[in-house]
Amino acid sequence: MAAPHAMRGYRNGFGDRVLFVAVLLLAAIWIAPIVWVVGLSFKPNDVLMRSTGGIVFPPFTLKNYADILAASSVFHWMLNSAIVAIGQTILTLLIASLAGYGFARTNFPGKRMLFVLVLAALAVPEQAIIVPLHTMFAVVDLHNTYAALIAPRLAFPFGVLLMTQYFRAISPEIEEAALLDSASRFKVFWRIVLPLSIPAQATLGIYTFLHGWNDYFWPLVSATKPEMYTLTVGLAAMQTNFAQTEGIGFLMAQAVFAGLPVMILYLFFQRYIVSAVAGAPAK
Amino acid sequence: MLKRTFLGLAGGLLASVALCAPQAWAQAKTEITFARFFGACEGDYGTSQDVAKARGECGVMTTLTNLFNATNKDNILVKPQIIEWGPYYQQFNARMAAHDIPTIAVMHSAQLGDYVRYVEPMDDALKEAGIDTADFTPNARAAVTVGGKIYAMPWDTHSWLWHINLGMFKKAGLLDAGGQPILPKTVDEMIAQAKAVREKTGKPYIVMATSGPGDAANSGRSYYSWMYDQNATIFPNGFEKADFKTPESLATLKAFEALAKADAITKGLDSGGGLGGFLNGAGAIYLTGTWRIDDMLAAEAKPDSPLHEGYAARVFPNLFKTQSVWTDNHTWVLPKGTPAPQHKAALVFLKFLWDHNFDWARGGGHLPARQSLMAEYAKLPQRQYVVDIPTFGKALPHEARRQFGFQNMIGEEVVNIINSGKTAEQAADAMQERSVALLRGR
After folding, report:
1. What's chain A's average pLDDT?
2. Helices A231-238, A74-105: inter-axial angle, 10-degree rounding
3. Looking at CA atoms only, how far is residue A275 from chain B in angstroms?
4. Is B143:B157 a contact under the CB 8 Å cutoff?
5. Where are the domains of chain A?
6. Do B91 and A224 lie within an 8 Å CB cutoff?
């Protein structure tokens, strides 16, 4: 119950008010480009060809959004993105949690070496492995499938590291008590440790989902049939060759449209996301 | 009774299947895939078949495809596979590696040399399709011919222009008695013009995009244009080694240095800022391609536009010896490995496109690939000034690999002269060094 009192005191002090205004200002600076993008998305392209300055004054148009919705495949691409992003999120959480728990709590030969390998993988850029990765999926004829879009992203060293560190921070006494009661290692993991790791799971889940939703390069080279495009690839394909000059409003509408599902998701899960980032359980 | 009814129904079903099957087979369409950039515009042209009303590359391509799918008598269905222009070739490489081959694919002629092993020679195919290769413009012929064989159907020529604000030229005293722009013939004349424009209008002589993604290509095209005016090449001693320190290369780079030193060219603008700036009267000349003429004409027609006093499109001027200019081409290739029915269908579609080449030139903003269309093309506004480009325009030979890489690298160094004050010699040194990496592993 100390927090609400603290908050009241926080709002009353002069210094805190200054801090509050400063935070507001920073938020305004941060949000200004987004407001600009949204504003430009409602302006005609021929007007923006001359100037992208004024977003407050007419003319306005909904044509940029109408053009996006007129694409017969746009909702199919959105569905593809959802399948890929959700699939990646669920499977990454499962794999990273299991691997993290294994590294944090169990002992096996070569564990240290394996963990070093996982850490080393953090330093390998995507571009360095794209050719062999593409070849592997070509050999097994898996391109243009959901499996090809999801699978390469499941090897996520950062997720394993995050979960390992989180599990290490959980007191082992809780598990030892359960093990003494003859619970299996997996049962301890599933029933006791996993629920305790919800904040870390949420953080990793949000990160993975956003990464999956925004992913562009791998879907570009793996999903080459329009029916398998994700939203990022499909929307980009709609751009004309001179989009930066003659289709600025359309580009901005695409950015808003692609970001909208994530924003809606945020509105629904706001308190979980905030608590996940703060590392506290959601109330 | 039940058995008889069942047998009767089954017999009827089999009979109807037998009757309908040949019809269904006859109606089965031959699907061909059509990999291209140019964007998608279903909102404006999703069902349109009226090519005469189509505008822009996307509009014309979409309408042509719609028209073909609706009217062809060979039961062919063209399925576009549209990719963003920027990473088009990366995806094309990936598709080749995965044996996921489109039936027809768009390809710049500058890229054809790198892909010639993966696409079919088309001499016989074009003949079979009824496409008269004798009608190719000289530029289009060179664009698709590698080692004496034709590897693509040319679709256009695009080139590099000066788009001129005649109002500002007039203020600077740079119009002749007929009201036509006086173009410089030497670097010194160009700098003198730039000084006149600055003095009379307070604005820079040239507006050019130099800072956005892909904008380096603009400077690369300008560099090549002035190199070709000197009948020079970056590969004077074979294609294994480039040379950027030839007298011609240094003279070209010094022309950019002179522009930068005279504060005659804009700095740090991206393509949106550059075009917007020029349309708002921020400079007298805008450097971009043939594809922008219609936008400028539309601006000229608006009474509140700084271009309303007059607009002119002119070939990138020769400041050295002989008029030439950078060119590139969109072409259609048939990647190897297409089954025979699709291959045959592709030729039908290519012939259809060939017959509509003028629609592409009129609506898409490029020069036709067909010599027989040039007279008609020249009647379009401002086109009489650019119509001869296919006779003197040049590109790197197909033996020169990684041409887009070279164009961007050259452009980046020219941009460094303009934006960052590098000298011509420093830029040439950097180009020389960077070219080694580009040619490594050929």
Report:
1. 88
2. 140
3. 39
4. yes
5. 2-66, 72-238
6. yes
